[in-house]
Amino acid sequence: MEISFVVFPFIIGLVFGSFFNVVGLRVPKNESIVAPPSHCSKCKRRLTSLDLIPVVSYLCLRGKCRTCGMKISPLYLWIELLTGMLYAMATYKIGFTPELAVVLLFISLLIIIVVSDIVYMIIPDKILLFFLPFLILGRILEPLDPWWDSVLGAMIGFGMLYFIAVMSKGGVGGGDIKLLFLIGLVLGWMNTILTLFLASVIGLLTGIIVLKIRGEGKKTPFPFGPAIAISAIFVYFYGEKIIYWYIGNL
């Protein structure tokens, strides 16, 4: 396989990752993703094209503003790299097929959600509603087998988290519930259950570690969206193998 087959999607992913940072940071605050142009939040200097080269600019500037020296969050760098790697991985595994469009949309949604949930602990309805029709269209053109698996997955995904939210009296946010609806639409019902299981394990372990480090109480709010996103992407690529392995060892 030619190296350009994955290098090009990786570069495209870096560029989109930079844009997803903007979307994830601005949409929760009801700000335009177009205006004002990217600028330093401290000195307000408008960033030039040399400041906005994904990954390269961050490394060359050593994670600081060129003008005032304010430290830039490493989240920008990691989101760009993660998006690039996931775009390349998806292209490598799926190839240039209609399903690739579905998974790239899926990855894009989850990356934006990770940014907004980490920074603000919010999963905006605007983002979910934007991706919803595209994912529905994607699953109409590239349906699961059987086709109703998407419908059942969406219903189970929404229903399980809604039930948990009611039983825990608000322990799960409404954004997480709606997000799992979209995930169920893409993955189907079995993979959705697996996603929720893995997300719960990841969320629990991460929460314990972070709260231990911070020395905060057990009731301190903690973003669950990143755990869901990590699990959903992992399950998209490897969930079927895990399920077959589990069934085979019953």
Supply the number of structural domains.
Answer: 2
Low-confidence stretches: none
What is the overall pLDDT average? Answer: 90
Largest sheet: none
The percent range for helix content is 55-70%
Structural class: mainly alpha
End-to-end separation in angstroms reads 38 Å
The counted number of beta strands is 0
Order of helices and strands: HHHHHHHHH
Net shape: globular
- What is the helix tally? 9
Identify the notable features of this structure and list them briefly.
single chain; 250 residues; mainly alpha; 2 domains; 9 helices; 68% helix; globular; cell membrane; transmembrane
Structural notes for this entry:
Helix content is 68%, strand content 0%. The protein is mainly α and 250 residues long. It is globular. It has two domains: 1-96, no CATH class; 123-250, no CATH class.
